[in-house]
């Protein structure tokens, strides 16, 4: 059966659904770790290995998918990425041995991150005059998925009694997206096939290095902040332990609200200036949060920091797709991969400082420091081009 044209609005909605679905299982992954450990009779260290497996897969996935979608087309590469998610979810839901679960986590990380990258590049193609708005909107879709993920998955686990059904359901959802996309025509510009020289020119472009460095500092600061904040509440805030469980949901709720607000102003400011303002505000609110001594006020600081952090990544993606429209997929992939490096390193650095005797407050000072670096990088003006 030949492909049929799909209205731009429906293709746009499909891209949002991909981002939402990706967030659903990424944000809830920690919830099912004890049950996974019990199922395979492995300890915490082995359970923790699922994260680098997923992270490594995601790194490879975004780099390959972004570049290949520029050269071969969004639709064929997007279908491949969705297929990898379906395979990974099916394998994770049916695995009988832990090595198979590790492989499945790698496939889930690669396919999910790659699918979101291609979806973002597709939005850049579909809306060339409103790229900043749609780069922010797809991040809102991810944020909504992250907010509802934990309570939704907890309810599902209570009803079904098994984490396996959860991933089988994820696989079915992505399979439905794959089938829908396969029967639709996706508008494609001219694709010239594999050309590795473009990668060399991009790798030498100073603007791309600025985007990637900013993404690494931002993402590392964001994840370190909301990941370690519950520990700070428990370790250094009197009566703070009872508030620790709600930090993640509060932070992501504030991020989602902030991204909605960013969408209303993103066309009113030059992107580089907006990145500077948001990063500077994030540095201030994160510092204030670390100074606060009462749990209620600390949670207020967490919410304010989430609001300020919320738009930075959207602005970075918009800058990349606006500056390099002909290679948007490759640039977005490199930017997202750089963010993953930051996520891997900065939260680890916070824990490492604590291990050598620093307090949690002092160690989490890396968060506002990274935000300051993002702001400083935004002051550097480097022309972009489409190569």
What does this protein structure show overall?
- Helix content is 79%, strand content 1%.
- The chain has helices spanning 8-27, 33-40, 44-48, 50-72, 74-94, 98-126, 131-160, 163-182, 197-203, 206-236, 247-265, 271-291, 295-309, 312-323, 328-355, 360-363, 366-378, and strands spanning 4-5, 184-185.
- It folds into two domains: 4-195, Up-down Bundle (Growth Hormone, Chain: A); 198-378, Growth Hormone, Chain: A, CATH 1.20.1250.20.
- Strands 1-2 form a two-stranded parallel sheet.
- The model has no long low-confidence stretch (mean pLDDT 86).
- The chain is mostly helical and 387 residues long.
- The longest helix is centred in the middle third of the chain and has 31 residues, at 206-236.
- The chain is built from 17 helices and two strands.
Give structural attributes.
globular; two-stranded parallel sheet; 2 strands; Growth Hormone, Chain: A; mainly alpha; 387 residues
């Amino acid at each position: 059966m030949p492909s049929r044209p799909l209205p731009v609005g429906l293709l746009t909605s499909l891209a949002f659904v991909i981002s939402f679905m990706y967030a659903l299982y990424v944000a809830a992954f920690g919830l099912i770790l004890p049950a996974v450990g019990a199922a395979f009779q492995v300890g915490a260290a082995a359970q923790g290995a699922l994260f680098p497996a997923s992270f490594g897969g995601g790194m490879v996935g975004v780099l390959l998918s972004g570049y290949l979608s520029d050269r071969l087309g969004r639709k064929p590469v997007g279908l491949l990425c969705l297929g990898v998610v379906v395979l990974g979810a099916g394998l994770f839901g049916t695995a009988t041995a832990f090595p198979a679960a590790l492989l499945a986590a790698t496939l889930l990380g690669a396919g999910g991150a790659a699918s979101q990258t291609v979806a973002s590049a597709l939005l850049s193609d579909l809306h060339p005059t409103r790229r900043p708005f749609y780069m922010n909107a797809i991040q809102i879709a991810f944020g909504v998925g992250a907010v509802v993920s934990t309570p939704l998955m907890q309810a599902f686990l209570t009803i079904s009694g098994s984490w396996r059904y959860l991933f089988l359901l994820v696989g079915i959802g992505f399979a439905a997206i794959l089938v829908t996309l396969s029967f639709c025509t996706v508008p494609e510009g001219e694709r010239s096939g594999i050309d590795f020289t473009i990668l060399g020119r991009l790798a030498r472009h100073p603007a791309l290095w600025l985007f990637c460095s900013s993404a690494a500092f931002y993402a590392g600061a964001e994840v370190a902040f909301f990941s370690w904040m519950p520990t700070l509440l428990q370790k250094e805030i009197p009566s703070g332990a009872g508030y620790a469980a709600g930090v993640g949901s509060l932070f992501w709720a504030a991020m989602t609200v902030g991204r909605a607000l960013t969408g209303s102003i993103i066309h009113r400011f030059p992107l580089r200036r907006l990145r500077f303002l948001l990063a500077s505000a994030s540095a201030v609110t994160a510092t204030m949060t670390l100074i606060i001594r009462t749990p209620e006020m600390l949670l207020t600081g967490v919410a304010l920091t989430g609001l300020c952090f919320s738009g930075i990544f959207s602005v970075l993606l918009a800058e990349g797709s606006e500056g390099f429209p002909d290679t948007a997929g490759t640039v977005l992939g490199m930017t997202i991969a750089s963010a993953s490096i930051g996520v891997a390193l900065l939260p680890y650095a916070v824990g490492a400082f604590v291990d050598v005797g620093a307090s949690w407050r002092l160690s989490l000072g890396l968060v506002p420091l990274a935000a300051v670096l993002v702001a400083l990088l935004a002051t550097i003006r480097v022309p972009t081009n489409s190569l």
